[in-house]
Each structure stands twice: as C-alpha cells, then as structure tokens.
Amino acid sequence: MNWLIAILQTTLFVALAPLLAGWVKCCKCRLQNRKAPSLFQPYRDLIKLTNKQPVVSEQASWLFIKAPYIIFSATVLAATVVPLIAVDLPTSASADVIVMVGFFAFARFFLALAGLDVGTAFGGMGSSREMTISSLAEPAMLMAVFTLTMTASTTNLSFAISHVLNEGLVLRPSFVFALAALVLVAVAETGRIPVDNPATHLELTMIHEAMILEYSGRHLALIEWASQLKLMLYGVLIANIFLPWGIADTLGAQALGYGLLAIIAKLAVLSIFLAIAETLFAKMRLFRVQEYLSFAYLLGLLGMLSHIILEAAR
Amino acid sequence: MILISAYCAVLLSFASGLLALLMNRRDMLLAVKRYAVKTFFKAGHGPDWLGKNLEEQRFPPFLRFSVFVLLGLSGVFAVLAGLGVLIGKTVITDQISLGLPWLPWHVRFDSLSGFFFLIIGIAVSAVSLYGPGYANSYDENRHPFAVLGLFTGLFVAGMLLVLLADDAFFFMIAWELMSVASYFLVAFQHENPANRRAAFIYLLMAEVGALAIILGFGVLAAFSDGFTFDALREAKLSTTWAGIAFMLALLGFGMKAGIVPVHVWLPEAHPVAPSHISALMSGVMLKVAVYGLIRFCFDLLGEVHWQWGVVLLVLGAVSALGGILYAMMQPNLKRLLAYSSVENIGIIFMVLGLSMIFMANGHPQLAALGFLAALLHAFNHALFKNLLFLGAGIIHHQTHQLNIDMMGGLINKMPKTSMLFLIGCMSISSLPLFNGFVSEWLAFQTALQVDVLDNGVLRSLIPVAAAALALTAALAAACFVKVFGLIFLGLPRSQHCEKAHEIQDKGMLAGPSLLAGLCFLFGIFPGLIIGLSNNVAGQLLGETLPNDAALSWLWLAPVSSQQASYAPPLVLIGALIAGCISFWYLRRNPATALRTAETWDCGFGGLTSKMQYTSSAFTMPFRRIFRSVWIIDERIEKDMQGAMNQDVAAVHYHLEVQDHSWPRLYEPIEHAVNRLAKLVGRIQTGNIRVYLGYSFVTLIIMLWVIS
C-alpha cells in the first residue's frame, strides 16, 4: 500500500511538471501584457516532439542517444525522494537529500557530456558554463539543506519535514537565510532569469539551451520534460520544507486529497512570485553569476552558523 | 595460515622482481635446462613447453608474462590474507630473525594492516593483468624490462612489508625499500631530462619525509624503552611532546601522501612513470602513507587531541580544494590525475581530522563513523584512480598522446576503453550508484553530527569544512566532465586520434575491467566493504558504528535509520524501471526511427575540430572566478605584417598556469640552501694540510669531551 502510494506520488510528480511550466508561462504572459498560451501547451509540445522523427548528427556517439533517458531517469529518481503530498513514504527512505543532490549531479554530468559529444562550439560553451554555475550552486544548495537537516537532525527529507510540521510555526533566523539561499540556487539551477533565459536562443547568453541545441524529437522531449520536472522539484522543496503545512502525515484518502490541494496552491503562489521576478529583472552578465551564487553560498553558511550559534539546544 | 599467505604475497613479489633479472640471461637458462634435462629426464629432452618458450623469439614475452603472473599471485595472496584477518578479527604477531642479531624484525598483522593489504592486493592484481601488454611496448635496448620488473617487485614487497612492520627499524627499512624502488621506477625513462628532474625531486622529498618519520619515532622512543611498537604504545608523552611527534609524523607521512604544500613531487613524478606504475604509486603508495599516519596517531600515540584534528581538517580542506582546482587547469592527463590524487588525499585527511575531533571530545562512535569514511574513501580512491591511470595508459599506448587538447572522438574508436574510463570518471565525480559517492555521503554524515560538540570554534569550523567538501565534489565533477568530454567526445583534434583503434591486448582491458566492476559493485553494495572496515574501527578505536544492525546488504544507515539512509540497490532498480519505461514507450513507434544527418553548422559549412572547445576554453570561467588560486600567465601575441605593420598574419595564444607553492615555498628554500652551501664552502679550501688540521682539532675536542 505504502509503495503503491509512493509510486502514485512519483507519477503525479512527473505528470504535473509540464502543467507547472505552463502556469509559469501563463503568469509571465499576463504580467507582460501578452496573450497567454493554454495551460496545457507544454503537454502538446511534448506529444508533438515524441511523434517526430529525431535527427541525430553523424558524429554523435551512443552517449548522445542514451543521455536523454539517463537524464530523465535521474530526475525522476530525484522526484521519488521529495515528499509531494505525503510524508513517511518508503521511497524517501531509500535515498536522502544528499543522494537527491547526487541525482541532480548525475543528470547534469550526462547533459554536459552530451553537449560536448557532437563537437560544436555551442555545445562546449553550454557545458562549460553549466558546469561552472552548477559547481558554485551545488555547495550553496547543500549548505541551505544542511541547515534544515541539522535542525531536524536527519538528512532524510521525509523525517525532516515531519519534524518541522510537529514543531509548529517557529520563526527561525537560520530558516530565513536558508530559504533565501535555496531560492537563489533554485533560480540558477533551473535556468531562469536572471541567470539563464529559457526562452531565447541567443548565443551570448545561452547556457542550458546551448547544450541541447543538437537534440530533436523524443530526445528533446525527454530533456525538456526533465527540466520541467527539475523546476517543479525545486518548487516543492521550497514549499514543503519551509511551509510544510497541509502535507499528509497519514495515508487516508482525505488527508491525501488535502495534501494534493495544498501543494497545488503552494506551487501556484510560488510560480506567481517566480513570474514577477522574471518580469522585473533583466538577465545578468555571465561573470556576474559567480557573485550571485557566492551570495547564495554565504546566505547558506550564515543560516548554518546562526543555527549553530543561536538555535542548537545547548 | 593468514600470516603464511601474507608472507607468500611478500615473497612472490620479491620473486617476480628477481625473475625479471633473468631477462638478459637466456643463455644461462638454456644451460640450466640442458643440465636439468640430463639429470632428470633419461630420454634426453624435457617437457615441450619449456624448450619452446626458451626460443629466442618467444622468450621475452614469456618471461614478461611469468613475471606478472608472480606479481598477480602476490596480489591474490595479499587479498586473501587481508580478507582473512578482517573476517577473523584477529591480531597475529610473529618475529623474523633477519637484520641485526639482537634486533629481530617484529611482525604484527591486524585488521588495519589487513584492510590495506586488501587495497594493495586488488590494485596489484589489476596491474599484473594489465602489465604484460603494456611492458611489451618498451624497446628492450633502451628500457630494459629487467629494471622495470625488478623494481616493481621490490616496490610492491616494500609496501606490503610496511604494513606488516611492528617495530620502528623494520618499518623504516620497508619504507625506504618502497621509496627507493619507486624512485628507480620514476626514473625508468631517464633519457629525458624532465624525468630525471622529477625523479630527483621525488627522491629528495621522500628522504626528507623519511627523516621526519624517523624523528617522530625518535620522540616516541625517548619516552619508552625500545623501538618495538608495543613499547612505543606504552610511552607516556606530555602534550607538548605528543604534539611535536604528531607534527613530525604529519610532515613525513603527509609528504608521501601529497598534501598541500608538500605535494609538489606528485604532479612531477606521476606523469613520467610508466602508467601501471603511476597507478600503483597514486592508487596504493599514497594509501600506505595514510596507513602510516593512522598507525602513528590512532595506534602508537594513543590519545588524540582535537587540535590535531583541526590541523588535519584545515590541511585536508586546502589540499582538496587546491588539488582539484590545479587539476582542472592541467592539459596533461596524467598530471591532472596526479593533482586529483592530492584532492582525494585531502578528503581522506579531512575525514580523519573529523574523526580525531570527535574522538578527543568523547564521542567514539562518531569517531568510528569518520574513521570508516576515511578508510572507505582510501579504498575507493585506490579503485578508481588505478582505473583512470590504467585507462590513461591505454590512451597513451594507442594515441601516443597525453595532452587532452590533442585528443577527441575516441568513444567511437575505442568503445570498451571509453566505457571503462567513463565508469572511473563517474566514480571519482562521486555520482550516486558508484563507490565514490558512498564515501562522500559518509563524510557528509560525519560532518553533520557537529551538533554534539560543545566547543564553539569547532561547531562553526566543521560546517565550513563541509561546505569546502561540497565545493570540492562539484568541482571534481566539472573537471572530469572536461576530461571525458575532451578525450572521448567531439571530433578528433589530431592525426593520431583519428587513426586510433581499440586496444587488442585482452589483459590490458581485463585489468581496468576488474577495477570498474568493483567500483560498480561497491557502489551498489557498499555494506560489504563497510562491514569489513567496521572491524578495523572496532579493533583500533574500540568502537564500531552506532547502528551496527543497519549494515545490511540493502540499506546503509550508519547512525540510525531515522537520521539517514541510503539503499543503492533500490535506487538502481528505480533507475532501471524509469529508464526502461521511457525507453520502451518512446521507441515503440517505428515511424520515429532515428535519422542521421550532418551536424548543424549555422549554414556556413565546414565544421572543423578546431572550432570545438579546448581544455583551456572549457576552464576559462573557472580561471576567472578563482583567479588568485593560480599564477596565470595568459598572453595573446599577434604577428603583424604588410604596409605599416597593420595586418595580422597569425595569432598565438599562450597560457601557463603555475602552482603557488614553487615561488612561495620551494624557491626560498632553494636559495637558503645555496647560501648555506656557499658559507660552508669557505672552510673548504681544497688544501690537504688545512683538512688535516681540521681533523686534528676535531680529535682534540672529542678527547676533551670524553675525558
């Protein structure tokens, strides 16, 4: 039963990810006085791409063809770890938050390799930039997450969220810092403005798009889907770690229903903030990103130190 | 029985070294054979295989093969001995009456030695599978196999003896055997001045390190009666003297292990040694130094202080970050791998430091966790670094290149090698499902237990160290994306790479395959090796993991299942399910089969390999971000021509990245030594009468002192 719900939750995660991307796009269009596409446009795009014949470069090796499957699987695995509508599911015990960061690293490793595979300058450029940004973002993310795990004294996300849930509404300075850090990292890691712009193919600013320039058809669909999933993952992480209320801690139908409604509401609000931020800010120069990310790193570290100095039970 | 197989391992490696000496003695062997045949076989001719293999054509490959068979057997016996003592949880002691008559060699074989025996055994077995094919490529006249085989055997025997030693004399003899034998291996291709220089630096630092270790033992011996480790364990040292002994040991073992700033011999010596030797040096010899430090601090000194832990933690963090940042900038593959060894040794030192801090603060169970993470990382690093060095050897063998800016596109030409190398890269980048991740995970788990400490400085220092560890892991992933991407992917950047093909020798693939298989096996079932190293922690620290029961094959939950758990087999199953479903679902429609076409070139045509990103281009963002870590000399020179010198004829890009430690540390030392030598030179007049005068005065003073 538990396993069934866990699988159901993961399926829900994967199925809802394009919807979230559609919703963000919708909000952005409204804010920018444009007519918004349908909420379900990302699904239509994915279906269209899967039905197309993929074109692969003659230089491409097996890695290029297999990489989308690996990237997608790794991201789905990361999604199994994160509690979406219920805590205490068996899948979240099989891997903790460090392993989740490891899955992201796994996906990124293959994405960057795929970018280098065909041997064009764009691919190399994208890979180089992606690895640079992620190698600065990953420690910042771990710092933010460690603040949570040290408060709850567990790295298991499910237990950590239950811990926050049981403590009730307590204002912790460390959590404020960690939240800020995680938001900054999430923006960088999911390739949103001001770090990267998912909507352009401008060579000077491309990061994520540069790596996947050679992909088409179902391969492109998988990679797009994986990046939508990643956006949703970060959203759920932020929503459920810092505002866990509403998540189901029993496995009854009613609790699960409330959990689903709660997470949808939280994500909807969070995406509005993302859309506002993307409308307000312009994209940064590439070599300003390091300052942005070291700021996130610093915030994460401050969160950890304030936990140790102010909050730990001594 | 266990001890006998340990001795067998040592003797077999000696034997393989001695057998290699017969390389140029075919005539002698023929004479022996004739004599033996006359005595033992009445019919007049002996067994067929012997005569056949002594023919001129077949003799050298046969001898090389048998030398490596002996070496491989030595590795197998080492594995057996190590496993035996680890599973049996026993301590075996013995005495060998060698050396001076009143100073027998004391031997002690416990779990710690057993664990490192296991590491050496696996590495040596893999290398001996790989060796025959690799050694065949050397020209016998310029690079005699006798030298290579002899010193390889001595080197392996030296390392094994260090682990067996139970008194300071025996330890130092074995240590020197290891150092000096490896010096000759580094100097193997000595026709090149750069190699001679690298070997000299190596020898110099090895000897300075050995001096520091001797002094460290001396400090201990001054407080005890004798040089056996049993006596040294009993020594009662004041905090100051214990600190001095620790610093000396750290200097000595750290020099061998290659922590910053005494790491400079590594990137010089590793690239010039033959690949299987650099695999052994980097994968195994550095671990012997780690063994030495563990033995000295945790076993001999007994009581550890948290200040030592802080020293190890800080040095380890600097080495880890510095190592990977320097590695990233290297275009030479083996140099890059050498710097990456500095990084990994740094991680091991960091976790050992954490273990010491927890130990000194009265949390032996957490100390055991850190200790285990350090041991596991040592084991894992031995596996994947060996794999990568052997892979680098294959690439060098097939393309005659080590410069990664000259490679590219090898994945289609060398599919098997590329697969093995990919597994190595994934392990070293600590991706889940591979072994490197497990030790890193345990290291993070150790660091996250900081809440139990009382000391405010430590409580804020350890999270910063954890942050450094996270940054190191992310940078390592970037570095090895660069390595794999530039070597195997893209278009070939040189003629050699275009013509390269897969290696034919089965042994040269079997060695790395063994290691890659183990990397994957221990990534999925880390419980196997953690269970073994738990015994080491139990024997040495007197404590095992807090959550013994959780060490099953499926789950990894070192502290408690509430706090953290990781089940790699489940993760693997999940990955397979997700991958298979998406694969099956998307491939079911035959109308969407793959179509190949030319790479999109923006309509300009003619994509060439020069348009790809190179090593220096890939790392440019890092070079800008971490600017002050290196001494960077980056210039663009233009050749001008034409009227008024205004047309650019050619553009030269020049990039040199240098290590800070040379101008900051070693050049001042060199100057000081030179100045001292000049001062001493003043009393060396070259006149025999003056020298006689010196002797006379010295003699008088000595007599006066005695009376």
TrEMBL record, chain A:
Q: How does it sit in the membrane?
A: Multi-pass membrane protein
Report whether Thylakoid shows up as a keyword of the record. Answer: no
Which positions, given as ranges, span the membrane? 6-24, 67-86, 98-119, 140-164, 170-188, 231-248, 260-280, 292-310
Q: Which Pfam families match?
A: NADHdh
The subcellular localization recorded is: Membrane
Q: Does the record carry Lyase as a key word? A: yes
Q: Which UniProt keywords apply?
A: Lyase, Membrane, Transmembrane, Transmembrane helix
Example GO molecular function = lyase activity
Query: What InterPro entries does the database record attribute to this sequence?
Result: ComplexI_Subunit1, NADH_UbQ_OxRdtase_su1/FPO
- Under the cellular component aspect of Gene Ontology, which terms does the record hold? plasma membrane
Q: What is this protein called?
A: Formate hydrogenlyase subunit 4
Q: Which organism is it from?
A: Methylobacter tundripaludum
